[in-house]
């Protein structure tokens, strides 16, 4: 196994783990949405018994699982997906952009803002770390991905 393949396999495992986390949140409803800072609308809808938060969370889980599939395909697992190089690059960009939110969140926390929970930069940093894993795999295997 090439080094980039192993790195992308780690990225896939992390994406699948996030997908499972999202599925596991659904039975906990508003408590989980509140903890993971899903937003007032999701919390209110969940508390009122609406199925929409669960369906949206399943949709997010499906997207995260597709991110994992792209990483597996880029690592050489025989999965038939279109535009593997572009797809895995977009996935890396999404994780990195989401993760860059940790920096303004840390600044807000350092200034005593009550608008950011201390766990929010941690969630963003996790996304940033996953994006770095994807980016490293892509950089090391760029020629093999084409």
Plain-language structure description:
With 146 residues, the chain is mainly α. The chain has seven helices and no strands. The radius of gyration is 17 Å and the shape is flat. The model has no long low-confidence stretch (mean pLDDT 95).
- Structural domain tally: 1
Structural class: mainly alpha
Seen as an oligomer or otherwise, the chain set is single chain
* Total helical elements: 7
- Sheet with the most strands, sense and barrel status: none
Over the alpha carbons, how many angstroms does the gyration radius reach?
17 Å
Mean pLDDT: 95
The count of strands amounts to: 0
Strand proportion: under 5%
What is the CA-CA span between the terminal residues? 17 Å
What sequence of helices (H) and strands (E) makes up the elements?
HHHHHHH
What's this model, at a glance?
The chain has 146 residues and is an all-alpha fold. It has helices at 3-25, 30-35, 40-47, 52-74, 84-99, 102-110, 120-145.
Layout of secondary structure:
Layout: H1 3-25, H2 30-35, H3 40-47, H4 52-74, H5 84-99, H6 102-110, H7 120-145
Helix pairs in contact: 1-4, 1-7, 4-5, 5-7, 6-7
What are the defining features of this structure?
mainly alpha; 7 helices; 0% strand
